[in-house]
Amino acid sequence: MKHMTRESRQWQEPAGVSRRGLITAVGSALFLAGCAKPSDRSVASTPTTSAESQRGTTVSSLLATSPFLIAHRGSGDNWPEHTMAAYEGAINSGAGAIEVSVCATQDGVLVCHHDTNTLRMTGVDLDIAATDYGRLSLLKNDARSWIGPGVGLEPIPRLKDVLDRFAGSHVIFIEDKQGTNTGPLLDLMDSYPDATEHFVWKQTAAGSAYEQASSRGYRTWGYFVDNTDDQFSRFAPNFDLVGIYHGASDQEIEDLVAFGKPVICWEIHTRWMRERVLALGVTGLMCSNYPYVAAAAASAMRDTFGDGVRASGDLPWVLGLKYQPEFLTGERALRMSHDTSAGYLMGSLGPMPAEAAGINFELRWPNGLPGRHGAAGVCFGLADDQPYRAGIAGPTGGYQLLLRASGAVELYRRDPGVPEGTEADTLLVSFASAVPAPGEWTTLRIVSSPQEITVKRDGQPDWSASVPDSTYRGGYLGLLKGYKDPVPVDFRSVGVVV
Questions:
Q1: What is the three-class DSSP state of 453?
Q2: DSSP H or E stretch at residue 164
Q3: I need a labelling partner for 359 at 20 to 30 A (CA). Which of 151, 174, 191, 212 fits?
């Protein structure tokens, strides 16, 4: 496996954004060990005894599972983070553990919220520590800009309500985000039966609150962004479990694993992220996209754009609000209008089943065409779900079918390992067709056999071409906007044909 350095890691912001800035941006948006292919496996649970089953998932049973998964913020790629809807959604999807961030209101009510201010999630600028619970209870978490317009507005839950619901049956990784509530938080945790088997104390590795938590019998988890200033050696010995941000280099992750403690990596959004860190020795995955990361199979055969909620596994090429496409729910379509080339992973459709015969999709330029060479289409045949954009070198091989504004239909092959600055894609076959009319939908179809690929437009016999190529037959696909101008392009009826 090629080692990942700070310079080579994927899912990163454009140049000029620091790693800590990236964490802020992602937050604002917001398997098994061995060599099996990502598409071949899902995370399995270790069988429990009848006594254990009566206790639900415990810390001991969770840590005995390899790998073990935790729903980060309740799986914020799928539901509004740190809401009852998120915790319920993750648990109903099979999560045995959730991660909960805690703040205290002015009148001492502990609530579930990542930020100490409510602006990012509610649009209302309130410091939680200076706001009473009555005022806070009127606010709603709004994740529509990240998940889609169809997702509901959700209240900020009281911590006690969440613990009453889940502390007896699941594991809760719990963190005092204000850093001022150690005593009251531990007292509340202590009030639940078998508390030390259902709570893990979570904090930044440099903090000292772990001492109080440990003295009460709780296992502790200290997390690191990276190994700046030799933090691992200074702080890792203090904790039962340690954590590392996914943006850390391969070497940093391996160095933390070498301490011999269970290592949990956050935030895991995709299956290739899962595979990367597990190969480096990580045993715990804190997942922002829990239903997708925990599964092996596709969850759908066609898009669900009309629902107005991003499907589990679908993600923009950069994990940030401004890169999320727009849902056109009335037209059951998705619009990409970024001022750069863009890619959108259709993880919900991947991996396609082995018997899949092809892919159908429709696209249109709703208002006007980009420059003559501007193009949009799909990438397919990908071995994994890493970010992919047209014309930009990347680590994953596959194909891309593009319709240009000139009417040309072109099939390219992308081979991995092409140096940056060189042509990333090889043209395999093309044909001329009519110039697309603004506002009108065009249908494109890919028919794939073990030895050949055929591409077609609008069912016209003359608008078709085939090429013998069997290089890639991976099961992942995505949507592509292959030009920098912010001219919008829409997609709909994206589906796998069996």
A1: strand
A2: helix 159-166
A3: 151
